[in-house]
Amino acid sequence: MRDLSRRLMGQFFRLYLGVTLFGVSIITLDNVYIEGSTIQELRQYNFGALFAQAISGVSIFQIFTFLRLRIVRRYFQQIQEHAVVSAVWQRLSRFPSEVFWAMLIFGFIASLLYHILEAVMTGASLRANLRELAQAVLFEQTLSLILAILFYTLIRQLLRPYILALPSERMWEFPRTTFLTYLTISFTSLMLITILSPSLYVLRMISSELPVNPWVMFSVAGSTLAFGLFLFLLLAWQFQDELRLLIQGLLSLLEGDGVWLNRRMPIISQDEVGQLGVAFNQLQDHISQDYLVVQREMQLAYQVQQKLLPPSSDQIGEYQIAAICQPTKEVGGDLYDIVRLKEDQFAVIAGDVSGHGMPAALVMSAVLVLFRTEVHRGGSASEVLRRLNHAVVETLQGDMFVTLGIGIFDQCKSTLEYASAGHVAPYLLRGGQVTPILCSSLPLGINKDEAYLQVLIPIHPADRFVLYTDGVIEAMNENGEMLGFPGFERYLSDLNSTASVQDQIDSLVKELPWGRGNHKDDRTIIMVEHQQAEVLPESKRDAG
To answer: In the chain, count of helices (H) and strands (E)?
Structure first.
């Protein structure tokens, strides 16, 4: 922090010295090309006084800066640790305008003292040389205006990183100004400079009874116009840069970037951009508080949703089951279930509710409860879907829909009865082959009278049944390419069939892509494997 204070004063010294030397260069060029003086004459009569004025000007402004930025220096030196940040911010934001007016006042006083001292030393009468005096004063005040607007623009740029280094504070109690003020000051100053510079040249030529050189006049006008445009564009760029920072913050909030919820927008000025930043910070405070409340509610909803889902692994007779359900947000619309039924039967389902977030999670919870009720009433897979569809249509009334795949396993018959309500086709893995089970109808919640088809599949030892949601196949890799059915089938064929079902699920989740940014979707995978019956040891077989 102490280094910041020393660096700040060093930067101001270099800025004052550079701008002052720029002013000396303008005076020298004017004397040589407009007045017709030689370098030898200037060295003999003008350079001494000119550099004395330059050194005194730099010294005065450096002392002025040292005093006016006292609270800023003490803050960065950590001498005044409890300095009010708002006071430091106000001093930094107002300082460019203070230097602007200080330069105009200094230029007027310095010009006045110079000509009085010149008259005293030469014994000349100010009244007798009134026209030449007026022209000289007008030129000097034009030069002061040039240096003032240059100071104003460059100091705004110099102080920007120091304002950004301040801790974010509530700045809206500060007196407000308008960017129109800065714009008016800058535009008026630059317009006066552009008009006065060539006008002064013409007046000098007329008063000296010399011809006006159009090339010199256009050179003076062109150079001042280029200088004015440069400063005006620099000021506009500063304003645009502040706006760009605000737009970046707003877009980040719209995209759900959590970083910006705890990051305050720095207030660089008291104009409209600063006021917009204040409004942004106030809005951010409200959003942050609401976000924390919603986040706590979503975490609670996630816990409830996880309790509704069955364990991720199970063993029912000779069937080993493993599942995983990954929502993109705290809660999601994907679901799965494993339900033990009577007479050596059990059912597995995987489903996907349209939409994301809390609405989909609420529907998912309702569908789970409805399914458990209907599946225990008995009936085939298609009958369970038919009854479930009636309940979903009455509940959702067409606002949302649910895709669902249900498989009912019969351990005695070694069969799988499968029916689908608009769900992606599951796979049967047998003997190294990956075969889709094609059987589907409309999703739940669309047509109350929908008839659901079903298929009956014999299940052999070592067969694996894979049920999943569309978030798996619609995921994109780093190149923006969708995985698709062929890609998922390749992953399934590469699975180690000798590994446990849980290890196979974990391997899939590790290898599969899962979208990019906002293109992620909930994904669920459930795998059921018919394991070989264990061969009992000879002693136990004899004992049986």
So the answer is: 15, 11
Which residues are bridge partners to 215 per DSSP? none
Q: pLDDT value at position 542?
A: 40
pLDDT in tens, 2-22: 677 788 899 999 999 999 988
Q: What topology is assigned to 313-530 in CATH?
A: Phosphatase 2c; domain 1 (3.60.40)
- Residue 230 has φ and ψ, to the nearest 5°, of -60, -50
Q: Answer for the pair 217, 201: CB distance below 8 angstroms, yes or no.
A: yes
Cβ burial of 354 (10 Å; 0-12, 13-18, 19+) is middle
Take residue 412 and report the two structure tokens written for it: 């005695």
Q: Please give the Cα distance from 198 to 219 (Å, whole number).
A: 9
- Give the 3-state secondary structure of residue 514: coil
Phi and psi, residue 318, nearest 5°: -90, 10
User: CA 490, CA 440: separation in Å to the nearest integer?
Assistant: 23
Question: Do 90 and 163 touch, CB atoms closer than 8 A?
Answer: no
Mean pLDDT score of the chain, rounded to an integer? 81
SS3 labels along 51-113: HHHHHHHHHHHHHHHHHHCHHHHHHHCCCCCCCCHHHHHHHHHHHHHHHHHHHHHHHHHHHHH
Q: Find the distance separating the first CA and the last CA of the chain, reported in whole Å.
A: 85
CA 525/CA 376 separation, integer angstroms: 23
Q: Which element (helix H / strand E) includes 273?
A: helix 272-308
The model carries a pTM of: 0.56
- pLDDT, one tens digit per residue, over 153-204 is 889 889 888 887 777 554 445 556 666 666 676 677 667 766 766 776 676 6
Domain boundaries for CATH 3.60.40.10 within the chain: 313-530
Among residues 382, 372, 326, the alpha carbon closest in space to that of 352 is found at 326
